[in-house]
Amino acid sequence: MSTHSLSDSLDGYDRRILDELQRDGRVSNQELADRIGLSPSPCLRRVRALEDAGFIQGYRAMVDARRMGYGLMVILHIAMDEHTDERFANFEAAITALPNVLECLIITGQSADFQLKLLVRDMDEYEALLLRTINRIDGVTASHTSFVLRKVLDRQIVPTAAAAQ
Predict the structure, then answer these.
(1) N or C: which end of the chain has fewer CB within 10 A?
(2) pLDDT tens digits, residue range 16-51?
(3) Is 96 exposed, middle or buried (0-12, 13-18, 19+ CB in 10 A)?
(4) Are 146 and 75 in contact (CB under 8 A)?
(5) H or E element: which one contains 17?
(6) Is 162 inside any structural domain?
(7) pLDDT digits (tens, 9 = 90+) for 56-113
(8) Do 35 and 77 belong together in one domain?
(9) Domain termination residue (choose one: 20, 38, 61)
(10) Same domain for 76 and 136?
(11) Res. 3: pLDDT tops 60
């Protein structure tokens, strides 16, 4: 089995660009170039190459959920009746259409097949979403809910240095 990956082709400048842009996606090209020790033109070429190669998938603003009125974060485990491509695809399409679902993972090691991370305003909104929508998706046989009391860490930064080792 080969341990070669696309990240093997990144040099130190590329890794520093990725680190800086993950910390501040709004940094100007001039500032980014200054921070990593390149002139602006080669820096911009590298950023565009990283975008074209798929290392940079996009840019976004981080919005405070509480300020938007979402007071409850939920971790929801879902068990399915059948483990078929069609059943999973149907569930994934239904979940993708729900704006309250922040994350959907297929998991192992649990009695569940999917783990969802949801944001809702309150318990009433969660109850309606679970009972009227999620539990009614074809194939859903069980759900287990955990409520997030507090975020200890919410890291969105992918380590770039570890990939170099």
Answers:
(1) N
(2) 999 999 999 999 999 999 999 999 999 999 999 999
(3) exposed
(4) yes
(5) helix 12-23
(6) no
(7) 999 999 999 999 999 999 999 999 999 999 999 999 999 999 999 999 999 998 899 9
(8) no
(9) 61
(10) yes
(11) no
What is the pTM (predicted TM-score) of this model?
A: 0.84
Amino acid at 148: V
Owner of token pair 């969802």: 116
| Distance of alpha carbon 108 from alpha carbon 155, whole angstroms | 22
CA dist 129 and 90 (Å) reads 17
Please say whether the beta carbons of 10 and 17 come within 8 A: no
- 18/83 same-domain check: no
Q: Which residue is it, tokens 């770039």? A: 160
| CATH code assigned at 48 | 1.10.10.10
Q: Which of 112, 141, 20, 119 is nearest to 63 (CA)?
A: 119
DSSP 3-state of 164: helix
What is the domain extent for residue 108? 72-147
Is residue 67 in a domain? no
Name the domain count of the chain. Answer: 2
Q: How many residues does the chain have?
A: 165
Residue 119 burial by CB count (10 A; 0-12/13-18/19+): exposed, middle or buried? buried
